[in-house]
Amino acid sequence: MLLERGADPNAANSEGVTPLMLAAKYGHEGIVDLMIQYKAEVNMRDNLGRSAMMYAAEHGYARIVIALLSMGADKNSQDNLGNTAKDYATRFGHESTAIILDRN
Predict the structure, then answer these.
(1) Per-residue pLDDT tens for 50-85?
(2) Domain coordinates of the chain in residue numbers?
(3) No. of H helices and E strands in the chain?
(4) At the topology level of CATH, where does 3-103 sit?
(5) Distance (Å, whole) CA 15 – CA 25
(6) CA 36 – CA 30 distance, rounded (Å)
(7) Which of 15, 53, 20, 55 is CA-nearest to residue 39?
(8) How far is CA 61 from CA 20, 57, 73, 92, in A?
(9) Model pLDDT for residues 10-23, shown as the tens digit of each residue
(10) What gap in Å lies between CA 23 and CA 26, rounded to an integer?
């Protein structure tokens, strides 16, 4: 695996999106855990100011939100338009994820 050979877990594409953000966006819990294990920065932002937490919240991946919170992800950070992870969860109808963000 590339990470085992020293690949940068925080490498981003031209849009500023990291592997952790993609894993969070598509609900790949195992990859999220692996990226965290290899010290992926949980508070990195893409070019729109979105974090992995925001991607997970937008798609209702509560388990990923919990994992990111446990690693120190900032639930109150805002994207370039002022939206938080809770705003994304609420906008896309993921009430249980919004509640998790409220309580943690």
Answers:
(1) 999 999 999 999 999 999 999 999 999 999 999 999
(2) 3-103
(3) 6, 0
(4) 1.25.40
(5) 15
(6) 10
(7) 20
(8) 13, 6, 15, 12
(9) 999 999 999 999 99
(10) 5
